[in-house]
Amino acid sequence: MADDKPVLSLPALDPATVPARTGSGYPEPFRRAVAGRSKQILGDALGLKNFGVNLVRLPPGVMSSIRHWHARQDEFVIVLEGELALVTDAGAQTLRTGMVAGFPAGRPDGHHLVNRSTQDAVYLEVGDRTPGDSAAYPDDDLVATHAGSTYVFTHKNGERY
Question: Is residue 145, in this structure, part of any structural domain at all?
């Protein structure tokens, strides 16, 4: 039987055709916290310049990131499959399929998602690409400063990892 999937060309694409990236740019020991996370960088695949869009899969026990907040970048997530714990300064709350969360730039409320369930969870994350962004990590000796197309990680005293 023939493949019933339509053949797409930009500006459309099938997310399944975008390779998944695993791992993280975090220095050790922080990298271990997100081991198992996979991201499909859809925004780049579509040629988007002003904001990023990632399709993220978190297996059970894996977190999205170290708890953080951005100085200049807004972030938005929508849960597509499964269940995730959204952990902020106020504590944890459960996000299920179809639920959303938003994190305005400059609001010092550290956040991340943790898959505490027994099934994979999938969500879409959207963030802008404002130059000069930085991220603070309230629970850890870690600071990220945007430098070109990546982040540079330092200790809170400014020493590089």
Answer: no
CA distance 54 to 64: 12
Output the average pLDDT for the chain: 94
Q: Which of 92, 88, 78, 87 is nearest to 127 (CA)?
A: 78
Residues in the chain: 161
CA distance 62 to 24: 13
What is the rounded average pLDDT of the residues 91-120?
A: 98
Q: State CA 128 to chain mean position distance.
A: 12
Paired strand residues for 113 = 86
CATH code of the domain covering residue 113: 2.60.120.10
| pLDDT tens sequence across 118-146 | 999 999 999 998 889 999 999 999 999 99
